[in-house]
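Example 301, ligand coenzyme A.
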Amino acid sequence: MSEPDVRVYEVGPRDGLQNEAAPIGTDAKLRFIELLADAGLREIEATSFVSPRAIPQLADADDLMARLERRDGVRYPVLVPNARGLERAEAAGADAVCVFTAASEAFTQHNINMSIAESIEAFGPVVVTARDRGWWSRGYVSTAFGCPYSGEVDEAAVVDVANRLLVLGVDEVSIGDTIGVAGPADVRRVLGALLAAGIGTERLAMHFHDTRGTALANVSAALELGIRCFDASTGGTGGCPYAPGAAGNLATEDLVYLLEREGLSHGVDLDRLLVAARHVSDTLARPLGTKVGQAGGWRLP
Ligand code: COA
Ligand code: ZN
């Protein structure tokens, strides 16, 4: 099978579910991941090996990863903040890890209780070990477009953190609008700075939240600048407990529909994806709120 034009990187099981208040059973999460793979997704961020006190919803990470039936050709990355997380991830059979920091000092402090510099220092050994093991790795730059604690974020700070993660050796960086405040002009500004600094589009992913309805417009702007990897959450769930006001991620079904209309291949079957989206809404016992989730794909009369 040829490579799709665009990589759709699914974050539903992790970013999507991490902030849900009601407990979600491991079986329901595993079923969700299975349905996502059935729909053709090839990168499914499965869970986080973080402090269970920081993210109680993902406290079952060890059990979930141990029970996950991996499929050939599917990558199941997990978040790892430190050596302890790496040990747990390895014991559970993970082979793709993400470290995560932010472009804003205030957010990094609230989210992981470290300064940005401390976080880079802490992740160094995680990324080196991952590389030694031949694992894939990614670095997140959260709050690249705005911080819930300190407001506007300078694109120079985004470039600096992205570069520091790449120097550590991650395969790619994902640039996040954690609280969903960006518009297309912000995307051009921040991405323009990253590209001008010499970071190639093949090492960049964009991570938009649709808090204010701008996520798809932002995807379009990023596509025009050559970005070919987007994070999205099936069912449109998502938020971070340390980012007050952060609502859902860009919904994978909305992203896939847009890509379809742009004539870009993505490898995802929209009908099957909607089965996974409905599983999420059934599990959370609330209606599916995404645009394409409600309307479905376009069936010609
Ligand atoms: N797995 C399990 N437990 C862990 C852990 C890990 N990877 N890392 C730390 N812990 C535990 C420690 O054992 C300690 O437990 P205790 O209080 O029972 O002794 C507790 O967590 C605090 O550990 P400490 O080393 O003092 O770290 P901290 O309190 O400064 O927290 C992080 C730092 C990074 C571990 C924590 O803030 C975290 O996990 N954040 C994740 C936030 C997140 O995932 N946000 C959403 C993604 S953007
Ligand atoms: Zn997010």
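Summary: The pocket of coenzyme A (ligand 1) is lined by residues 18, 48-55, 79, 81-82, 84-85, 88, 100, 111-113, 142, 240, 242 (CB under 6 Å).
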